[in-house]
Records
---
Amino acid sequence: MFFSAYSQKDNFRGHVSDRHDGANFPGVIVELSQNEKVVYKSQTDIDGDFSIKNVKFGIYEFKLKYIDYETYVNQEFHFNKNNKIFEFVYPSPCKESVKVCPKNHSDKLIPIVYGLPRENLVKKAKKSKVYLGGCILTDCDPKWYCKKHSIKF
């Protein structure tokens, strides 16, 4: 009796472009994990392309990571013979901030204001009417501040 057991593998290729302007996105870390362990890893090149050789077909946690950007995570990424080449736009759009504190209340919340504040904003901040957030770093910066718990969200 003869048994043949093998796992199917193929190359996993893709391209990452910048959501803001559509340009190629070099330097993005691409990870495939199983059971909370990274099993395959790559990085986009100058053209925003990446390739990982000999990836076993299966279900992975897929991540795109870049310094100072929110990590994109797909918990159930299916890599199989029909899905081997992918196009990604990064960073993904931000979730809309809802005016409810993560501690589940909606009182004692004030808006976070970004940029160089003028005199009237400084006065409002001193009266705890707004929270001065400094410079805008990403589109996903927090929109609300909870005075009760000192949480930005």
---
Amino acid sequence: MKPTHANIQIQDATNQGINVHIDWIHIYAPCEHVPTGTLVYFDDKSVDHLVPTAAAANQKVLKDGGDEAHIRSKEINGRTGMASMIEIQCCPPKVLQNHNLFGHGDLQSYVYQILNLAAARLGIKVRPEDLMSWQRGDVSLTEIHLTANFGRPAGMSVPIIQAIDDNTESRKRKPLPSWIILDKGKKRRSTFGALTIYDKMLEMLSHREWRKPGPYQTKLLAEANRGIRAEIKIFSQGLKHYDLGYVNRWGDVDIPTLYFEYLDKYNLCHAVQRLLTDDELVCLTRSERNTYTLWLKGVDIKDQCSRTTAWKITKAILKKTGIDVSGKRRPEKLPDIDLRDIFTPKNVLPVPSWAFGTRCFVAPRGYGISNVPVDQGGSSTP
């Protein structure tokens, strides 16, 4: 059965309150307006004037102190010169908070706020029917990033990323020791989705504005230093697969469930594994033990048997022992860390309590307000 948004509605109460936040959106919304940016014209010889067909994208700061949004006028009427759609790409937390260390998961709230800010900044008088469309969530979504920060022992981000790199055979990029991108696309960038694992504090420090931090930035850097970040990017075909190509289809979606369903596809938790004990080896059949032994010696399971047999044996060993023999990285006798304890819902870092009531966290507002968890152990508001 094809998964739809109806399959990922809130069913498991343990997922509610987990802080998976929205980090990027690419939307197309109905909005009749005079085109922004430089117009592109088509020389139509059947008429005596140049016909506007498109407009170049422009960057606008939608909120003072916030990040820029990329905005483009779309579907320009050649007769009237008016655009009927607006395209926006942005990171909502950066636009609203000037950082994206944390945020919230209410898509409707973010989209409605961003569209209103864009209209105000560009001087667009929004038609009532367009405003109603925004309120209903009749807005096309072609890309969304869902992000969570996971607690980890100090200094372990780079070793974790190296282990994931060692365990992943192909379709990966590692621009930095603290940054890896996993992409399921076979020949080019996947149209379904991708995963980026990185050290958020190091990423923040790579930008000039974080090198001489003020009081709030110091707090944010300290918070970033607590974890490792996993960012799921869902592209157009992935959204189509789940029937989530419009904002109004996200109202009943359990975003943490969707996030971890995507995360599980990348098999992160088996990048670091331990050796089986003699007692555990007894539970395996002879063929399973032989496969495991050869795998330990460096012979990949795909080189030992047919694809069907490899799948059956891998599944059997995993079920009996919890060890996945399909990966490239071999087990350790005493591994420093168990990734099953890292990339798990219960280990997601919440929004720190000190951020509430400050400019560092803009809570959901408007339509479909979500429940954002509070870190009761944080320091007081400065």
---
Amino acid sequence: MKKHQFEEFERLSDEIETLGNFVPWMTHSFGEKSPQAVFHAQIIADWNTVVQISEHFVEELNK
């Protein structure tokens, strides 16, 4: 966009639309043929919170 390549931007935007949506799947075990489940966005957000808290905790321990 900064280079004012609007036609290229439109072309790439249209191409992206044809790719579909990313859906993060998980399964307990591929070997056991466990059922698949979709990661809910809240699980990912909660995990990010746990990671951030852990990082702050480690920073405090290193002081």
---
Amino acid sequence: MDMGVKLERMLFDMYSPHKVKLAVSGCPRNRAVAGVKEVGVIGVDSGYEL
């Protein structure tokens, strides 16, 4: 949860002409569908994958 909160705070005031969607999934099964967002982080055995 801590990583997702930090990423959200970093991107909160970022200027973008469109909405930026962020997902963080701690599960390799990717239940948060992080692979289809503009910024996605998926937990894997060796750490994480962007």
